[in-house]
Design goal:
Chain lengths: 442, 294
């Protein structure tokens, strides 16, 4: 008898302990404003616009004006409480994934990265609400929206245009009497002149992915300007990386830069910070990077007392068009399970209002809205034309399955740059990784 | 007799809450991961297919996983040997009854209390090929021919990372050896000296065999730490150049979080678990036997 009672007592104890743990969770769910989307929220919250707690999650420094505008929205809409949570990119992505899968503590609104291997996975899983009917959608280019869309429905609204190009030391170019190159031959000539002046043409931090950026920056002109449907043909298995002349010749372009010594030495051990230091010291003249890094180069230029500029990577042969590598930034999405969807959508329309957008996206960014023209940073002066009116192709990870970017265009490219592999093998690795990823439904 | 039996039953019953916690939060998820390793789950989508042993069979033909496997063995062996050699050396150096001993013990142990991430960043800067202080120092000493691209060279990178982990782990080994050294009875050493043994002979034939317990601990923990190598790799090289410094842990991370292949990553995790299990079991068995014999 005693045995039974003690057993029951112990079981009861453990049950108490476990439920305590459980109730703890739910308590925090309803209490924390960031969890307005959980099923635990009071039913009245979903029906009346009063007392709505909205949670928004954003990575890093995206949407820098969000907090300010959220306050303004709260003032205009009594009863709405908005909480904004920020986290570094990788941490943000993983936490959000875990919350979405568990359907617990999911923020009502959150940012998603464009493309099939990113937002596409969440769309397929049914986690995102259809935003096609919202106001700002009509004012954004189809090209910017399509990486966030599926079957004609829009699931995320991008806030800025991103692009890759070449930052360069304008002061040094002027001293050497060099002009901004507009095609491949001019680029080689510039590089040659710089080299003979004792300057390494490119600072090339391959350790931090410069190899991948250079592929991204080259192929819009070398592959997609000639065949914009190349990706679709790859999905249909009509073409392969390793057998496509355009991809092979792009690999040869990279090899030429490497073999001529235009990229410098020890590039696989070179990180972004050291590469930027080379630019600041005048030891190297150009570096491939994205518009998001402009803060670094503004600071570098003022510290070193030089002028910086940026141009589109000229991979094109003379007479052929130069295409920019450009893609939308992250886009704002609404959780399909949120009980506050209506308020969340109102907030999106408020944020993307023409008047609020400049504050929302911060200075130096290019709004996705056709109706908003923003002052540009002087560093972008040379690249402005092609951004506004020129042709572009998205970053490669946008239209691709997850895999080739890291397996082939980062890792195998490092191996090729270090002499342990070849650029032909990079393309073979890309095919292999692509097929594997598509097979597993990514 | 009867009383003690009942006492035992009651005390077992009180273990149930802890056991339940353990089962709910550890055993159940672990068993679940065996199931996920046989699916093509992408980490997000609730719809996934059961693929049997495909994920495991795929690992055999995967060059990346093979490279990561070989690297992991190198990390484990390099870290274990390196930190034991340096740990023992340091332990002997700071066990000579000098006044500064305590100060040096603190200094040598200090890397152990710094976070791996911070260590990784600090050493990345030291080993930088252009602005790094190591190459600068070599140049200053007139040894510029020894300057290297420490983290960018395919041959060197893995040993640079291993070296940093040895730098971090040696202090810990030093403490273990130190504790063991101080438990060696002075009588044995005195007896050996009387028989005319030199310092080196005393160390080799008297002290070293008595350090068997410390060797057991440092070998087992060193191997486990090496086999799990992750944070230094992610911070210092992200597995590059190419796959030259990729470890099983880092490739699991990349497969799951960059390539969205959680099923395959879980399969890798299980393979890693089995490898660690087997190696540790063999080690414990061999070292225990040796320890008893000694």
């Amino acid at each position: 008898m005693k045995k039974v009672t003690s057993f029951v007592a112990a079981l009861a104890l453990s049950a108490v302990a476990l439920t305590a743990c459980g109730s703890d969770n739910t308590a925090s769910n309803t209490a924390s404003p960031s969890s307005g989307g959980t099923a635990g929220a009071s039913p009245s919250a979903s029906t009346s616009p009063k007392n709505v707690a909205l949670g928004i999650s954003v990575p890093g420094q995206d949407l820098p004006g969000l907090e300010e505008l959220a306050k303004k929205f709260e003032e205009q809409n009594a009863g709405v409480k908005i909480s904004v949570a920020r986290a570094p990119n990788e941490q943000y992505e993983q936490t959000l994934k875990a919350h979405l899968v568990a359907k617990e503590d999911v923020p009502d609104l959150f940012l998603q990265w464009p493309g099939r291997g990113k937002i596409g996975v969440a769309i397929n899983a049914g986690y995102l609400a259809d935003l096609s009917s919202l106001g700002p959608v009509a004012d954004i280019d189809q090209g910017q929206l399509s990486p966030f869309s599926q079957d004609g429905k829009v699931y995320g609204i991008p806030w800025a245009k991103n692009f890759l190009g070449v930052y360069y030391n304008k002061t040094l170019f002027e001293q050497q009497g060099l002009n901004v190159p507009t095609n491949w031959e001019e680029l080689l000539e510039v590089a040659d002149r710089l080299q003979s002046a004792g300057v390494t043409p490119f600072a090339f931090p391959a350790k931090d992915g410069s190899g991948m950026f250079t592929w991204y920056a080259l192929v819009p002109s070398t592959v997609y300007a000639k065949d914009p449907d190349w990706d679709q043909k790859r999905y249909d298995n009509q073409v392969q990386f390793a057998t496509s002349d355009s991809w092979k010749s792009t690999g040869e372009q990279l090899k030429l830069l490497l073999d001529k010594g235009y990229l410098g030495k020890n590039i696989n051990g070179l990180g972004n910070d050291s590469a930027n230091a080379l630019i600041a010291d005048g030891k190297a003249a150009m570096i491939v990077n994205g518009n998001w890094a402009i803060g670094d180069y503004e600071k570098l230029a003022s510290d070193a007392g030089i002028t910086m500029g940026m141009f589109a990577f000229p991979g094109n042969e003379p007479g052929q068009p130069l295409w920019l590598s450009a893609a939308p930034s992250t886009g704002l999405s609404v959780w399909s399970g949120s009980p506050n969807q209506d308020t969340a959508k109102q907030l999106i329309e408020f944020l993307y209002d023409e008047e609020n957008v400049p504050a929302l996206i911060g200075s130096g960014q290019f709004s996705t809205l056709k109706t908003v023209a923003m002052d540009s940073n002087p560093i972008f002066a040379d690249i402005l034309d092609i951004i506004r009116t020129g042709s572009s192709y998205p970053f490669l990870d946008v239209g691709w399955p997850a895999g080739p970017q890291s397996d082939a265009f980062t890792k195998e490219t490092q191996a090729a740059l270090g002499g342990a592999s070849t650029f032909e093998k990079v393309l073979e690795a890309a095919d292999k990784s692509w097929d594997k990823s598509v097979e597993s439904g990514n | 007799m009867l009383k003690s039996k009942r006492f035992r039953e009651v005390s077992y019953a009180f273990a149930i809450p802890a056991l339940l916690f353990y089962c709910v939060f550890f055993i159940y998820p672990s068993l679940q991961s065996f199931y996920f390793s046989m699916t093509d789950w992408n980490g997000m989508d609730p719809h996934y297919r059961f693929t049997g042993l495909d994920n495991f069979l795929g690992l055999w033909n995967d060059g990346r996983f093979g490279a990561a496997f070989r690297n992991t063995i190198r990390y484990a062996v390099g870290l274990t040997i390196g930190q034991i050699v340096f740990g023992l050396l340091l332990a002997v150096l700071v066990n000579r009854g000098r006044r500064a001993d305590n100060w040096f013990r603190t200094v040598f142990f200090s890397p152990q209390v710094i976070s791996m991430i911070a260590i990784g960043y600090i050493w990345s800067y030291i080993l930088d090929p252009i602005n790094g202080s190591l190459n600068y120092l070599l140049d200053w000493l007139g040894l510029s021919s020894l300057q290297q691209d420490w983290l960018g060279s395919f041959k060197l990178a893995i040993w640079s990372v291993t070296g940093v982990s040895v730098w971090q782990g040696a202090g810990w080994c030093m403490v273990i050896f130190l504790a063991n050294l101080q438990s060696v009875p002075q009588e044995y050493i005195e007896a050996a000296s009387m028989d005319g043994a030199t310092g080196l002979q005393r160390f080799r034939h008297v002290i070293l065999p008595l350090l068997a317990p410390a060797f057991t601990i440092t070998i087992v923990t060193g191997m486990i730490a090496g086999l799990k190598m992750f944070d230094l790799v992610m911070v210092m090289t992200k597995g590059g150049p190419g796959f030259a410094t990729e470890s099983i842990s880092s490739i699991i991370y990349n497969t799951a979080f960059l390539d969205n292949r959680f099923g395959e990553a879980t399969a890798m995790g299980i393979v890693m678990f089995l490898i660690i299990l087997v190696i540790t079991a063999i080690q414990l068995w061999a070292l225990n036997r040796r320890g008893v014999e000694a």
